[in-house]
Design a protein that fits this description.
Blueprint (H helix, E strand, L loop, with lengths): L2 E4 L20 E4 L8 H5 L4 E4 L6 H4 L7 E4 L9 H6 L3 E3 L6 H17 L1 H9 L23 E5 L3 H12 L3 E5 L11 E3 L2 H7 L2 E4 L13 H6 L5 E4 L8 H9 L5 E4 L18 E3 L8 H19 L8
Parallel strand pairs: 1-2, 1-3, 3-4, 4-5, 6-7, 6-9, 7-8, 9-10, 10-11, 11-12
Length: 316
């Protein structure tokens, strides 16, 4: 019987219950987490390996002669050396677009955190602030209306396009830096150069892939082009920004707020943004709604089944 190994199944399904259909396709072993030094030993007899964040690079591939399929439990597949896999005849798949709605929702959860500060006021009111107030209302933070503001987007893939549609529904002016031509864009999205996008945006949201060209896209120079009142949001990849440069901009009031669901190192150890007053950080959970994780697991299992049936899908 073919062996199927999941190297880090905990985050997608802490109870491992949703992976049960894979038992009909082979001998299944699910590990919650796998350390780098454990990868080869755990995968050595497997024909099919699923991974989320565990690296399967050339070094691992060359020591796994039985391996025929790697399923990445994410949309991004940089955890796998795809070139080495192809050289060894190994199929690599990913799970595209499963988290589009959830990540787009998180973008606006972050944005509204800054503009409306609902949790801030809820905490104050639990402590009696409103009860002791002489007036019917109070506020001690700026309250900002989104309608009429300019929402800039870097990258118009599935998530970027969904974010654009939601921003438009809020009555915002939507502009984007994208490889798509102006003719390809919906009427409500204006195409801009990166320099124009940085200068015009009241809110800037990052949705581009991480490449050598986009690493530290938002650095000291880019921040210098942005409005001091701007809000920067990163739900893409941590290294799209330079952590120290963004921290400095926040601390010197050259950037109103930074919102992120991703950081350069995860879990973070000594990132200055974690203790910055104007940084709002969530622990890489935009993808983790029940609905998104259900889609992720369903597609991952479907892709394994398709591979076994000789008709692989979602191949990268």
């Amino acid at each position: 019987m073919r062996k199927i190994v999941i190297l880090d199944g905990y985050t997608a399904d802490p109870d491992s219950l949703a992976w049960k259909p894979l038992k009909q396709l082979g001998e299944l072993t699910v590990y919650d987490r796998t350390k780098p030094e454990e990868t080869i030993a755990r995968a050595k007899d497997a024909e099919i390996v699923l991974t989320n964040k565990v690296l399967i690079k050339r070094q691992e591939i060359e020591q796994l002669p039985k391996l025929k399929y790697i399923g990445v439990l994410a949309t991004g597949y940089n955890v796998v050396d795809v070139e080495a896999a192809h050289e060894h005849g190994i199929i690599v798949t990913n799970v595209p677009a499963y988290s589009t709605e959830s990540v787009a929702q998180m973008v606006f959860a972050h944005l509204l955190t800054v503009t409306n500060r609902t949790e801030h006021y809820a905490i104050l009111n639990r402590a009696g602030r409103w009860t002791a107030n002489p007036d019917f209302c109070y506020w001690d933070t700026p309250l900002t209306e989104l309608a009429g503001k300019t929402f800039g987007i870097v990258g118009l893939g599935n998530i970027g396009q969904r974010v654009a549609a939601i921003a438009n529904a809020f009555g915002m002016n939507v502009i984007a830096y994208t490889s798509k031509s102006a003719e390809e864009l919906p009427q409500y999205i204006g195409k801009r150069t990166l320099r124009e996008l940085l200068a015009e945006s009241d809110v800037l949201s990052l949705h581009c892939p991480l490449t050598q060209e986009t690493k530290h896209l938002i650095n000291r120079q880019a921040l210098g082009l942005m409005k001091p009142s701007a809000i920067l949001i990163n739900t893409g990849r941590g290294p799209l920004i330079n952590d120290e440069d963004v921290t400095e901009a926040l601390n010197s009031n050259r950037l109103r707020a930074f919102c992120a669901d991703v950081l350069t190192e995860e879990p973070p150890k000594a990132n200055p943004l974690l203790t910055c007053d104007h940084a709002f950080i969530t622990p890489h959970i935009a993808w983790a709604s029940n609905e998104a994780r259900t889609r992720l697991i369903d597609v991952a299992i479907s892709s394994v089944r398709a591979f076994i049936n000789g008709k692989p899908q979602n191949v990268v």
